[in-house]
Specification:
With 144 residues, the protein is of the alpha/beta class. The protein is built from five helices and five strands. The chain has one domain (9-137): Rossmann fold, CATH 3.40.50.
């Protein structure tokens, strides 16, 4: 029996198809078999995340690129963390930006893990495995 009635859905916001395929492959190699919903733009991801007024997707984990064609990933991160329903969702920033100020800004906004691309496979796999462990024990708030 699963520990939660709703398995965690992974929301991947990544505009580069090559990176998206590599990330998904690494997630699968790390033994995580959760559903992955891939969005190539910030607007598409936001429409999905915030479009429905109740927006109860069940538990989610967000993999977020910062450099999107239509908006900054930090905007999405700030919106997620200020949203009553979604602010507890873990956010992993996966980006090419290794600017220390940008990293600090993401942690200040509430990201859980910041990983710089190109991703060194072992550290990425370890982060994903830890998240997998986290996902398996994550307590989901009961919907009344």
């Amino acid at each position: 029996m699963a520990s939660s009635p709703h398995p965690v859905t992974i929301i991947m916001v990544e505009d580069d198809d090559g990176h998206a395929r590599l990330i998904e492959k690494n997630i699968r190699r790390a033994g995580v078999c959760n559903e992955i919903r891939h969005f190539v733009s910030g607007n598409a991801a936001c429409d999905h995340l915030f479009g429905d007024p109740t927006h109860d997707h069940g538990p989610i984990l967000v993999l977020l690129d910062l450099n999107l064609p239509d908006m900054s990933g930090t905007e999405i991160l700030a919106r997620l963390k200020s949203d009553e329903t979604l602010r507890r969702a873990p956010v992993v920033v996966l980006t090419t930006t290794d600017d220390q100020r940008e990293i600090e800004r993401c942690y200040d906004l509430g990201c859980n893990v910041y990983i710089t691309k190109p991703v060194e496979y072992e550290s990425f796999a370890q982060a994903i495995r830890q998240l997998g462990l986290f996902l398996s024990v994550m307590q989901v708030p009961e919907v009344p």
